[in-house]
């Protein structure tokens, strides 16, 4: 298995910046797993090649988010919600936070110490904490808070009542989170 991880990582290094298409041509959930793979390869074989590849690709991941002041936005990668197909409210729009934003937190938590990213821990904590807003005190949840105030003339800025994959955020909070949240 160790060898397969290294072979897989080496393959992605060989394609350089030509990332494979996904649901869209370029999104955070393509870059985060790539970095997770390279981090795993580095832990198995701590070479400067993997270290340089992680350092080069980390800005690709961080470009999806920024240091916005609002808790729903701070370091949260932009994700589009196709609520027409997946949501009960049939609203399209950007969702903040989207549960897959925790992929960024996992990358930031696992970065090798030699990677230059001084705010990695603070960014990861902000992402994990932000995802908890999708859970109510009674344990109910939403998998998508549609952020725009209006979508196609319909009121938005609302939690879609569909609750499903948001539990992935809890998995990552339990794995990496600060228990003093």
UniProtKB/TrEMBL annotation:
Domain of life assignment: Bacteria
Name this protein carries in UniProt: Uncharacterized protein
Organism of provenance: Dictyobacter aurantiacus
């Amino acid at each position: 298995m160790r060898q397969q991880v290294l072979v897989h990582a080496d393959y992605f290094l060989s394609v350089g910046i030509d990332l494979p298409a996904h649901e869209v041509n370029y999104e955070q959930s393509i870059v985060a797993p790539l970095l997770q793979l390279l981090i795993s390869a580095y832990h198995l074989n701590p070479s400067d090649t993997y270290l340089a590849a992680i350092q080069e690709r980390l800005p690709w991941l961080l470009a999806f988010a920024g240091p916005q002041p609002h808790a729903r936005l701070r370091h949260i990668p932009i994700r589009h919600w196709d609520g027409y197909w997946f949501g009960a409210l049939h609203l399209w729009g950007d969702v903040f936070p989207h549960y897959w934003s925790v992929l960024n937190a996992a990358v930031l938590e696992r970065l090798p110490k030699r990677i230059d990213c001084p705010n990695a821990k603070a960014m990861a904590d902000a992402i994990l904490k932000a995802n908890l807003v999708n859970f109510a005190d009674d344990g109910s949840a939403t998998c998508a808070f549609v952020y725009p105030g209006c979508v196609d003339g319909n009121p938005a800025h609302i939690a879609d009542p569909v609750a499903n994959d948001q539990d992935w955020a809890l998995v990552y909070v339990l794995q990496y989170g600060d228990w003093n949240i």
